[in-house]
Design brief:
This protein is mainly beta. About 0% of the residues lie in helices and about 50% in strands. The protein is built from no helices and 11 strands. The strands form 2 sheets. Strands 2, 4, 5, 6, 9, 10 and 11 form a 7-stranded mixed beta sheet that branches. A 4-stranded antiparallel beta sheet has the order 1-3-8-7, with no helix packed on it. The chain is globular and about 40 Å long.
Length: about 120
């Protein structure tokens, strides 16, 4: 059974930084693009960022450009999301997900999902 396991997150004041990490089990990590999504209460799920299988290309939602950085290490099967200059509106449950195609517009297309990790940014 494929597993996607997340770590990181927590609570921080506005302007602070957090790092999320993700790894996969029982799947060939570098066969997949990896995406980050978030879901805040009373809002629709939002694509945050994705990175192609090789790491050569990355994509970001307009709301996080210049503040968030996605990276991956295929040798270690790890995916990271470094979040800087956090804002209260970044508060949400964050999920990483795996799919052959890097596209944050269609979260339902992603094959495998992590368990989610809470990020809370206080003003």
């Amino acid at each position: 059974q494929v597993k996607v396991v997340q770590s990181g997150g927590g609570q921080v004041q506005a302007g602070g930084s957090l790092k999320l990490s993700c790894t996969t089990f029982r799947v060939t990590f570098d066969d997949y693009a990896m995406g980050w999504f978030r879901h805040a209460p009373d809002k629709e799920r939002e694509g945050v960022s994705c990175i192609t299988w090789s790491g050569a290309s990355t994509y970001y939602a307009a709301s996080v450009v210049g503040r968030f950085t996605v990276s991956r290490d295929n040798a270690k099967n790890t995916l990271d999301l470094q979040m800087n200059s956090l804002k209260p509106e970044d508060t949400a449950m964050y999920y990483c997900a795996a799919d052959p195609i890097c596209d944050i517009k269609f979260p339902s297309a992603y094959d495998y999902w992590g368990q989610g990790t809470q990020v809370t940014v206080s003003s």
